[in-house]
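Reading a protein record of the kind used here takes only a little practice. The integers have meaning only within a learned vocabulary of local backbone shapes. With that in mind, consider the following protein and its fold in token form:
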Amino acid sequence: MRTITISEGITLTASEEVIRQYEDEVADAQWERDALDWLRQAAEAGDWGFYSDLHKDLFGVRPHW
């Protein structure tokens, strides 16, 4: 068993496998938030080539305007 702090005052005590799965899901969620932020920044900067490439990488299709 292992215990980690999820947020201030919130801990999770679970098996190593469950803790690892939780940490992987948190990392995946952070990557997704970062990618969506890059997408927003590219749109705000008018960098439509990068926006289109990143959109395709994230969603599998180019954006349609």
User: Anything to note?
Assistant: The mean pLDDT is 92. Residues 7 and 46 are 37 Å apart (CA to CA).
